[in-house]
Write a structure and sequence with these properties.
about 375 residues, alpha/beta, FAD/NAD(P)-binding domain, seven-stranded mixed β-sheet, six-stranded mixed β-sheet, about 20% strand
Length: about 375
């Protein structure tokens, strides 16, 4: 690494966080290689909501405009009861006014495509598994973006307990075609369950069903099981399920790093995204926090004076915020589908119905209102 921030960087993991980190490093003068063990995207059947902090990070990386063009702005929606009654309404206009950027929804595969397009084709190597020793021998800095089951994290922190089951399992899919929906984004909370959707620009939608359940349960016919589970819920739920091909349904148990890591860096290695702070999806902040990681990492490495010092600053900046968001996400899940007792559900619903819209906006701003660091231009 020289005074201009140039050097060789190896990113292990080609997900959203890894690709974003590679873009940030490439834009600031690093020679970057991304190693992705999969030959193809394994999460193409999902969608994602991006809050203002995620979009701001993408703007700094130079891909915000392309993502905006492909995403649907989320102005309408909110949270319902299983019977369809509104508990709270989303005021997307007020949120955009407060942040300057609206919430957006985009297929995860499309976001991956746009991030890959921002890198030189030769920078991404698929079907490759990178070991830490090999990576350290080949690069000045190693970015471990290898997900919740990170082998690099295990190597760096062998005493850490690793990911644990959150108590929730999630089934999700993107509808086979367009369907009429009168909201951009919705959640429905019932006892021990949540059902939500994200609408896309082409009229399709992603839906997800979160269930409080033991780990490892799988269904021979997931759509039939969901139709039974949500049979008494409002008609939008059934409409989304009916618009889905059975083979498109994904089912994953939700794990998290419930025990915070003592550091996001060790020597010349930085942990990023789920490898550093895997969280439950209840705030929709997992990808946004990975994007924050990526921009912060690139900025700190560009500032120098050496890799170890830069990564120590990255840890000091990112770890408190990311771990705070992870705690908030866990708490949001406990107050959402995590509630099953009728009295607790009633009190939660009453609180939501009576809360002023300004309070809802303040809750979103607490996590979404983030100012990214600037990245210096690539040295020539």
């Amino acid at each position: 690494m020289n005074g201009k921030g140039r050097g060789t960087a190896l990113v292990i993991g080609g997900g959203i966080g890894g690709l974003a980190a590679a873009i940030g490093l490439h834009r600031t003068g690093w020679e970057v290689t991304v190693l992705e063990r999969s030959d193809a995207l394994h999460d193409a059947g999902a969608g994602i909501s991006l809050a203002a902090n995620g979009i701001r990070a993408l703007d700094v990386l130079g891909v915000g405009g392309a993502v905006r063009a492909a995403a649907r702005r989320q102005y309408t929606g909110g949270t319902r009861t299983p019977g369809g009654r509104w508990l709270s309404r989303m005021d997307g206009i007020a949120l955009e006014r407060a942040l300057g950027i609206p919430m957006t929804g985009i297929p995860r595969a499309e976001l991956h495509r746009l991030l890959r397009a921002a890198l030189p084709p030769a920078a991404l190597r698929t079907g490759v598994t990178g070991s830490l020793d090999t990576a350290l021998a080949a690069a000045d800095v190693v970015v471990a973006a290898d997900g919740i089951r990170s082998t690099v994290r295990t190597r760096l922190f062998p005493g850490h307990p690793g990911p644990v089951y959150s108590g929730s399992t999630v089934l999700r899919a993107i509808t086979a075609g367009p369907l009429p929906l009168d909201t951009d984004f919705e959640l429905t909370w019932g006892p021990g369950a949540e059902f939500g959707h994200i609408a896309f620009t082409d009229g399709r939608a992603e839906w997800h069903a979160v269930l409080a359940a033991p780990a490892g349960i799988r269904h021979p016919d997931p759509l039939a099981a969901l139709s039974r589970r949500f049979g008494g819920w409002h008609e939008r739920v059934g409409r989304l399920l009916a618009a889905t091909r059975p083979e498109d349904v994904l089912h994953h148990d939700v794990h998290e790093l419930a025990t915070p890591l003592p550091s996001f860096a060790a020597g010349r290695v930085a942990l990023l995204g789920d490898a550093a702070h895997a969280m439950t999806p209840n705030l929709g902040q997992g990808a946004c926090q990975a994007l924050e990681d990526a921009v912060t990492l690139a900025a700190e490495l560009a500032a120098g004076p050496d890799v170890e010092t830069s990564l120590a600053r990255y840890d000091a900046v990112r770890r408190p915020r990311a771990q705070s968001v992870a705690r908030a996400a866990r708490q949001a899940g406990r107050l959402g589908h995590g509630l099953s007792h009728p009295a607790a559900v009633y009190l939660r619903n009453l609180a939501l119905r009576t809360a002023p819209s300004a309070a809802t906006i303040r809750a979103i701003l607490r996590h979404a209102d983030w100012t990214p660091p600037a990245l210096p231009a690539r040295a020539v």
